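Input record (one chain):
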Amino acid sequence: MTLRPDNTLISHREMLVELVLTPFRAFARLLEHLTENNSRAQALAAVNAISEEELRAKGLTRADAISQVFRHDA
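The corresponding structure, as predicted from the sequence alone:
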């Protein structure tokens, strides 16, 4: 048994599992950070925040609004 930084006991098996999982958790946090800071993801979140009534007032469906986010202007 070993102590964690928070002074709780951890077995050697648990310590090994934590050691193995640490890089995967770090990679997942990196992907999450990259996704949250992606301008397209932010635009999709903004579209998701618009109510159906607001979309109707603009003459759009949710599909139209989402397609505008993914539209590629050449």
